[in-house]
Design brief:
By secondary structure, the protein is of the alpha+beta class. α1 packs antiparallel against α2 and α6 runs antiparallel to α7. A hairpin with a 4-residue loop joins β7 and β8. The strands form two sheets. Strands 4-3-2-1-5 form a five-stranded antiparallel beta sheet. The protein is elongated. It has three domains: 91 residues, Helix Hairpins (Orthogonal Bundle); 50 residues, SH3 type barrels, CATH 2.30.30; 85 residues, Alpha-Beta Plaits, CATH 3.30.70.
């Protein structure tokens, strides 16, 4: 068989194989997209899948092309050596870009955070506005937009506040030392009753006399708000404090404030030996 005919047959076989593999890749792409949409309809991974699939197809084409050239008697080693040297140069130049890409994959696959989450990351605190192939953009409480490279974000200690199921409510109420025992007990009962009545506070809480301060008897309330959202936490804490203040005032329980007693010794009180 002439060499050109063998080459045409090899080319036809490679074309068929590539077409079949492309079809398999497209089917896999559709199944992955369907599964991702079932779990999270707006998953950031959906934006990166087309890029990943193009890279896979490029690899398939490269393998098919080198295989065809090898079957026709061409030396592939020199071609691969050239690609190797070029790859090292490109790899050195694109080192940070590749690290960011792998960081993006790590963040999305581990579900560390998603767009809309409130996070604390490397001293930055705010809402995640965007996750792309290079960086994560965070809008802080001052409304500044901070861009964090994903290779840094993937290796940082990230606190995802939005994933909290509940928030810790830790409050201290100081009453004056002149408060009698009956009113001290009443002060604790008011905290318990107010917490039980509030629908957004868990019924598992602790109320007790915590310590004796410089100018107050300190009663501690420790419980949880039934939400991880910071705005809701602030609202519930404010409502709880307002209700307790109103009930304390109604019951005649006085809040303590920093004070100091001065004892002045007069000359007439002195006794000379």
């Amino acid at each position: 068989m002439p060499k050109w005919e063998a080459g045409l047959i090899a080319l036809a076989i490679n074309i068929v194989l590539v077409a079949v593999l492309f079809k398999v890749i497209d089917l896999a792409d559709k199944k992955i997209i369907k599964k991702l949409q079932e779990k999270e309809i707006d998953s950031p991974l959906l934006r990166f899948l087309p890029v990943i699939m193009k890279i896979v197809k490029a690899i398939v084409l490269f393998i098919a092309g080198t295989g065809l050239l090898q079957s026709q008697g061409y030396s592939i080693s020199s071609i691969l050596a050239g690609f190797g040297i070029g790859g090292i140069a490109v790899g050195m130049a694109a080192k940070d870009a590749l690290a960011n890409i792998f960081g993006t994959v790590g963040i999305l696959s581990d579900r560390v955070y998603k767009v809309g989450d409130y996070v604390k990351l490397n001293g930055i605190e705010g809402y995640v506005e965007d996750i792309n192939m290079r960086s994560t953009k965070i809008r802080d409480l001052d409304h500044y937009l901070t861009s964090v490279p994903n290779n840094i974000a993937a290796n940082a200690v990230v606190v995802n506040v939005s994933n909290a199921k509940k928030r810790f409510l830790n409050l201290t109420f100081g009453v004056t030392y002149s408060t009698d025992n009956e009113h001290i007990k009443l002060a604790q009962d008011i905290l318990k009753e107010t917490a039980i009545k509030h629908k957004e506070i868990h019924n598992e809480f602790t109320v007790c006399i915590h310590d004796l301060g410089d100018s107050s008897i300190n009663i501690r309330f420790r419980g949880y708000v039934k939400s991880g959202a910071y705005d809701k936490f602030l609202r519930v804490r404010g409502e709880f404090l307002s209700e307790v203040i109103a009930e304390y005032r109604k019951a005649g329980i006085d809040f303590a404030f920093p004070s100091r007693s001065l004892y002045i010794e007069s000359d007439s009180d002195k006794v000379e030996n």
